[in-house]
């Protein structure tokens, strides 16, 4: 996706969307609010919003949905992500196309800025950060550190979200983010049998990406999107039933990705 710079674009009807990976507490949200205010001061920036591609609210999809209701003509997505992995733009583009196809509202023109590390100002920024360095005061002691105890989790369910190459390219990060956001919203750690979630290395069936696996049943789900996550939460994690529309069972034979209607 190529577009002109902010200063040379027609500013009428344009919005800027800053995106970061995740936020687990209030302070990162406040930091993104601060960055949005800074961006709003850039000449020609237009209205500025922020979102998170993984855990954190608003999610990227939610922020885009809100902008659709604001009747903007152009949305410039600015990734504040370091480092930006090669798969980032691949799954981001695929996710945007999927969301657009599923939403009948009129969509603005979407463009994506280059990664922040490519800025010609990066060397200057690093130099300024070096000037802020402060020495750490770490007292020396002969006493061994006190071992801390841990509670063994009581949750009976586990959801593993594959982070292998094909799954990342298919949008595993955004699926992970939706799952984690729903885990917080629906209090899944304590609801039902209790659910814990985790990222995983390759789970095996790469051609069914993006893939996740639900335990204790060990059920594989492939071709997962946000709607599938919502159904898996309601019907499997809370209801105890396998969602066959997205489930893939060991058959001893290779299986292709199917549509839910197959």
From TrEMBL:
Keywords: Lyase, Metal-binding, Plasmid, Ubiquinone. Coiled coil: none annotated. Pfam families: 2Fe-2S_thioredx (PF01257), CbiX (PF01903). The keyword Transcription does not apply. It comes from the Bacteria. GO terms for molecular function: lyase activity; metal ion binding. This is NADH:ubiquinone oxidoreductase 24 kD subunit. It comes from Neorhizobium galegae bv. orientalis str. HAMBI 540.
